[in-house]
Specification:
By secondary structure, the protein is mainly beta. Helix content is about 5%, strand content about 45%. The protein has three helices and 47 strands.
């Protein structure tokens, strides 16, 4: 009898087993030796050598120079330009790449150029960017998508395997339709999760398919983890893109996965590059609006090598983080627009994303693992501001950072600033600058739909404020405090050479020669009761000058200065070292 082992055989070499009464021969065939059997090995005696057995195999045309329209008594009415059917004894015996193309309704859906080895199954992810109908690769199995296996898949003769997904099972396994070179014509079978996790290169989706994660509900208190480990048909994470060239797959593209040093024994990884090719996305359902702390688990393995990268939370960049120095830890993804680093999230589906292009350096390994949401407060407040009736320029600051501006005759409409607010100590500052002629303004705040602040003067284009006063410069500057708690700010200016400010023993501001910090909100760093604010001036040579200020709710409560930078040194003293050192005690709130 003779047989081919029941393994995932695809286009390429394979062993043929011939069994007789006194021998079992293993006969080797390969892409370069297909027309006749030339080498045998007696599996019983161990003999190896040339064969004189009358064995002849029909040439399977593994590298055709023209398209074929039939395989295993099936036809492709379109121009299927993939590898021809494997043939044994004049009988076609299937080919996985031909069948995958046929099920995609033809027209050379994958758009590869040429024939033969360039289309081996394990290379399909590598060419995903060139597909005509298939525009995406990724990590979630979807019915109709093509599953691609690496060249390490047992029985694939080093050429990988492709199959078309019919359905996805609840345990994470998939049901596929496939053919296998020299193995079988079209058949259906299930592929286990263990096989997928060991040999998956990725999935390829049709143009109308977009893999979308299943949002994980976020608890209204405590913490919730959204993992990249997809299990039981619940995919809270999706990887998008063709992956990266990896030596494990002969230098061809695939999505990297690892179970070492990870959260819940799984992570994905690619290399950073620009422009972007790959990304990962975690989806979550926010059930109660409010402030959330968000952390990313950085896998404790060599794939966490990126030294400077930013995640995206609901489309907004986090602060820069270093994966390489944070392995094995939960690293906070700070909101750069808030002193506390929290994220104001409204109800609905919210995403955390990480792109290979979001690193400052290309060519470093980038790891995707679990994301943690921690509910800080449940906050249903929506705070909005509006500037209108302007002549000339209106500016709005939220906690010291400019968030809105508008010019002559413009109206910003109501703008939601909730994401920029802290749990307490929020200050909104409106300013109007006049560049010439008369000036007018209207500034408003509303909370949950009710107007809580409204001030206006004049009518733009009709009557200027204060009897058409035409003084240029800042004509309006007012800070409104939302929470009733005072806002304490400090300022360092008129500096020669170096000035420092510490709040309760920690440095919070500094300025060098000729620099001016402006007023800096230090309220988040204050404690209930007595607080120590220390100002210090260090002279490195020549004269020295300083100006230190504290204000509370916009009212100046402390100011000391000496000299004028660049003009007159303080006391005409050229002594180097610390020339000013004073601590002011501030009661809070």
């Amino acid at each position: 009898m003779w047989s081919v082992p029941a393994t995932d055989q695809d286009s390429g070499g394979y062993p043929l087993i011939i069994e007789g009464r006194s021998f079992i021969y293993s006969i080797g065939f390969g892409p370069d030796n297909l027309s006749a059997a030339s080498l045998i090995k007696d599996l019983r005696t161990g003999y190896s050598g040339p064969t004189d057995l009358p064995i002849r195999i029909e040439n399977p045309q593994l590298a055709p120079t023209s398209s074929v329209s039939s395989c295993c008594n099936e036809t492709d009415s379109y121009a299927n330009s993939y590898l021809a059917c494997c043939v044994s004894g004049g009988i076609s015996t299937g080919n996985c790449v031909w069948k995958a193309e046929q099920l995609r309704l033809g027209n050379d859906a994958f758009g590869f150029s040429g024939y033969g080895g360039s289309r081996d199954a394990y290379k399909w992810m590598h060419l995903v960017r060139a597909y005509a109908s298939f525009t995406q690769g990724g990590s979630i199995p979807l019915p109709g998508a093509v599953v691609v296996f690496t060249n390490g898949l047992p029985g694939s003769s080093g050429l990988g395997h492709v199959a078309t997904i019919d359905s996805v099972n609840s345990d994470g396994s998939i049901n596929v339709t496939e053919q296998n070179c020299y193995y079988t014509c079209t058949k259906s079978r299930a592929i286990s999760t263990s096989t997928l996790r060991s040999y998956l290169a990725g999935y390829i989706y049709d143009w109308f398919q977009r893999p979308v994660p299943t949002p994980k509900p976020i608890a209204t208190s405590g913490e919730t983890i959204v993992d990249d480990y997809n299990w039981k048909d619940v995919f809270n994470f999706v990887a998008k893109g063709p992956g990266v060239p990896m030596s494990y797959n002969g230098g061809y593209r695939m999505w990297g996965t690892s179970g070492t040093g990870t959260w819940n024994s799984w992570c994905h990884f690619v290399q950073t590059r620009n422009p972007s090719e790959n990304s990962g996305r975690w989806d979550a359902t926010i059930q109660a609006p409010g402030l959330y702390e968000i952390r990313a688990f950085i896998s404790n393995n060599a794939f966490a090598a990126t030294t400077s990268v930013r995640y995206r939370v609901d489309g907004q960049y986090s602060s820069w983080i270093n994966q390489a120095t944070s392995r094995g830890t939960w690293l906070k993804l700070s909101n750069p627009n808030r002193a506390d680093g929290y994220w104001q999230l409204s109800m609905g589906t919210r995403s955390v994303e990480l792109f290979d292009s979001d690193s400052s350096t290309s060519g470093q390994w980038l790891v995707f693992d679990a994301i943690k949401f921690l509910a800080v407060t449940s906050n249903t407040d929506v705070v909005e501001i509006r500037m209108s009736n302007l002549d000339d320029n209106g500016i709005a600051y939220v906690n010291g950072i400019q968030r809105l501006s508008a010019g002559y005759y413009q109206d910003t409409g109501w703008v939601n600033i909730s994401q920029y607010l802290q749990t307490t100590n929020n200050a909104i500052r409106f300013r109007l600058d006049n560049t010439g002629g008369g000036w007018t303004y209207r500034f408003q705040i509303r909370r949950n739909g009710s107007i809580t602040f409204h001030e206006e003067c004049g009518q733009v284009g009709v009557t200027g404020c204060q009897s058409n006063n035409q003084t240029v410069g800042t004509r309006y500057d007012q800070t409104i405090y939302l929470d009733g708690n005072p806002v304490v700010e400090i300022r360092l200016s008129n500096v020669d050479d170096n000035a420092y400010a510490d709040v309760n023993g920690t440095q919070r501001a500094s300025a060098g020669y000729y620099q001016d910090t402006g007023f800096v909100n230090i309220s988040p760093f204050l404690i209930n009761g007595s607080n120590a604010i220390r100002f210090r001036l260090v002279n490195t040579g020549g004269g020295w000058t300083h100006r230190f200020e504290i204000r509370k709710n916009g009212i100046l409560t402390f100011k000391e200065e000496c000299g004028q930078v660049g003009v007159t040194g303080c006391n005409n003293d050229g002594t180097t070292g610390t020339r000013y050192d004073k601590t002011i005690m501030v009661s809070y709130p």
